[in-house]
Design a protein that fits this description.
Elements lengths: L1 E5 L4 H12 L3 E5 L15 E3 L6 H10 L4 E4 L6 H6 L1 H22 L3 E7 L25 H19 L3 E7 L1 E3 L14 H10 L5 E3 L11 E2 L1 E3 H15 L6 E6 L5 E2 H12 L6 E3 L8 E2 L4 H7 L7 H15 L1
Parallel strand pairs: 1-2, 1-4, 2-3, 4-5, 5-6, 6-11, 7-10, 8-13, 9-14
Antiparallel strand pairs: 9-12
The protein binds uridine-5'-diphosphate.
The site of uridine-5'-diphosphate (UDP) has 13 residues, from helix 6 and strand 8.
């Protein structure tokens, strides 16, 4: 069995590739290497350096390899950039997806695991201490989230029209490192932003301390990238089952942590002085996003193993190795 992993040279992709190989499946990576790193690709794994926007290039990859399933991780994923360049996001994330699933359909491949996001929920109208289930109304508030939701719709439609078997994994806040070489090299999310500030002698900034949460800062569900990678293997098993149609599945821990709690853990793990600066809210940040993870347990027989300490300490070890 050979699985095509798009975005396999990225931060999450590198972890997913390793877990897929461990599960006994072969892997081919499709990556445009715009944010991928070649040294993350394990020996013996073929890289097809192709952009999904290149329809003929994508079709050629399917003609060349005996692919049995697709894990589709490749996408543009910066919220702010998506607001500035919405057409670029729709082109890359949605036209790219149509080329990919079109090539799957032409080759008779039906098993698809799609990287979705908690961004599909937008700012859900629920109490800050409520959990988000997959039945929570989806109303994305930026083009990035909109492309993820539209991607789910395309995959859902193909499950009806062409018997695709689909798991759309709605990732919550992914952080940590499965090994010190595989850390997140981009400074775009809270944990790397905080490490970057501290190692430059600056203090982290908290975007808003007046939210309706116990300490006033936003609550998120931080999930270890290693747990996330294992969820992908469970999702491959799930879509390989003959009775699978389509399921959107939250991937988180079911436990929320506030920005201040994350910073407290950073202080404990690193031993550095952390005295955060409180600044104004960032536009578009919901007060709390914590996953109800019962569907993942039920359908995938998967649950997270790692906690916030594991996430921060593995991320810190990896950060020190590469910075
Ligand atoms: N955040 C913050 N300071 C920062 C970066 C992020 O207070 O320098 C907060 C942000 O408002 C959110 C949480 O940290 O509540 C996680 O932000 P991130 O951008 O990592 O992920 P998001 O939840 O927005 O997808």
């Amino acid at each position: 069995m050979t699985w095509l992993i798009t975005g396999g040279a990225g931060y999450i992709g590198a972890h997913v590739v390793r877990e897929t190989l461990k599960s006994g499946r072969n892997v081919v990576i499709l990556d445009d290497m715009s944010t991928g790193i070649a040294t993350r690709i394990p020996d013996g794994v073929t890289l097809e350096e192709v952009t999904l926007v290149d329809k003929a290039g994508v079709e050629a990859v399917f003609a060349k390899h005996e692919i049995t399933g697709v894990l589709h991780l490749a996408a543009r994923k910066q919220v702010g950039e998506s607001v500035e360049k919405p057409l670029y996001y729709w082109d890359e994330n949605i036209n790219g997806l149509t080329h990919l699933v079109g090539a799957m359909k032409n080759s008779g491949i039906k098993n698809l695991v799609f990287s979705s996001s908690a961004a599909v929920y937008g700012e859900p109208d629920i109490a800050p201490d409520a959990l988000i289930t997959e039945a929570t109304h989806c109303l994305p508030i930026n083009p990035y989230g909109a492309t993820k939701l539209a991607g789910e719709w395309i995959a859902h439609a193909l499950s009806a029209s062409d018997d695709f078997h689909v798991a759309a994994l709605r990732y919550f806040n992914v952080a940590g490192a499965g090994s010190p070489q595989l850390g997140d090299q981009f400074i775009l999310n809270l944990v790397p932003i905080v490490f970057d500030a501290l190692t430059k002698g600056n203090q982290p900034r908290v975007f808003g301390d007046d939210y309706p949460t116990p300490d006033g800062s936003c609550i998120r569900d931080y999930v270890h990238v290693q747990d996330l990678a294992e969820a992908h293997v469970a999702a491959m098993d799930y879509v390989e089952r003959p009775d699978t149609t389509f399921a959107a599945i939250n991937i988180g821990t079911g436990r929320g942590a506030s920005v201040f709690e994350v910073l407290d853990m950073v202080r404990e793990v690193t031993g550095l002085e952390v005295t955060p600066e409180r600044i104004q809210r960032r536009a578009g940040d919901p007060a709390a996003l914590t996953a109800d993870v019962s569907r993942a347990a039920q359908l995938l027989d998967w649950q997270s193993k790692y906690d916030l300490r594991d996430i921060i300490s593995s991320a810190w070890t990896a950060w020190q190795q590469t910075h």
